[in-house]
């Protein structure tokens, strides 16, 4: 099965060449590359609460949308994962709010993996003002994959792509 991946402008990769589904020695070799995917967002009027800033629940929605776009950009749209019988579960989300997000502000959500093992994945997401500006919020999201109702190792072809966005864990959310 081929998974074409758009990593950056004109660079495409395909993980069909020699990578079998059970070739864990190749697929699970850790490579530190340190790339992040950035997803733009904007604070809309319906996101604002009575305190005049973005409601806390809206952060969860923005972070979910950013993870979904991340998966689409690297070649694993949710629809395709569902066709393969794969589900992604989230078992923990921690958010540290640093400053309020205000109506009309343009944001960027940076996405990468500080923890990546065969069975679990931890996303790191930072919401910043546009152009890599001030930190608005930082989140750590932990989970994994399910198939046929059971937790499974991260599929090798997905793990291989995730490695590109692996940046070792920081001590805590700052």
Structure annotation, total helices: 4
CATH class term: Alpha Beta
User: Radius of gyration over alpha carbons?
Assistant: 17 Å
Structural class: alpha+beta
Question: Quaternary arrangement of the chains shown?
Answer: single chain
Low-confidence stretches: 1-32
Secondary structure layout plus pairing:
Blueprint: E1 5-8, E2 11-13, H1 24-27, E3 37-42, H2 56-73, H3 78-83, E4 86-97, E5 106-116, E6 121-129, E7 135-147, E8 150-152, H4 156-164
Antiparallel strand pairs: 1-2, 3-5, 4-7, 5-6, 6-7, 7-8
Question: Would you kindly provide a brief summary of this structure?
Answer:
The chain has one domain (5-164): Thiol Ester Dehydrase, Chain A.
Which keywords apply here?
174 residues; alpha+beta; Thiol Ester Dehydrase, Chain A; six-stranded antiparallel β-sheet; two-stranded antiparallel ribbon; 8 strands; 21% helix; disordered N terminus
Description:
There is one protein chain. The chain is built from 4 helices and 8 strands, in the order ββαβααβββββα. It has 174 residues and is α+β, with helices and mostly antiparallel strands. The chain has one domain (5-164): Roll (Thiol Ester Dehydrase, Chain A). The strands form 2 sheets. Strands 3, 4, 5, 6, 7 and 8 form a 6-stranded antiparallel sheet that branches. Strands 1-2 form a two-stranded antiparallel ribbon. A hairpin with a 2-residue loop joins strand 7 (135-147) and strand 8 (150-152). Mean pLDDT is 83; it is low at 1-32.
């Amino acid at each position: 099965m081929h998974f074409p991946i758009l990593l950056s402008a004109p660079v495409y990769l395909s993980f069909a060449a020699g990578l079998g589904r059970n070739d864990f020695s190749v697929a699970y070799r850790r490579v530190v590359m340190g790339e992040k995917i950035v997803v733009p967002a904007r604070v809309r009027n319906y996101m604002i609460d009575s305190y005049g800033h973005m409601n806390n629940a809206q952060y969860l929605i923005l972070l979910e949308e950013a993870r979904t776009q991340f998966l689409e950009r690297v070649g694993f749209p949710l629809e395709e994962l569902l066709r393969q019988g794969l589900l992604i579960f989230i078992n923990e989300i921690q958010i540290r709010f640093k400053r309020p997000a205000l109506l009309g502000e343009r944001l960027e959500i940076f996405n990468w993996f500080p923890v990546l093992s065969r069975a679990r994945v931890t996303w790191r997401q930072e919401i910043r003002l546009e152009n890599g500006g001030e930190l608005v919020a930082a989140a750590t999201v932990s989970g994994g994959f399910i198939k046929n109702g059971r937790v499974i190792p991260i599929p090798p072809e997905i793990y291989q792509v995730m490695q590109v966005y692996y940046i070792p864990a920081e001590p805590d959310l700052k």
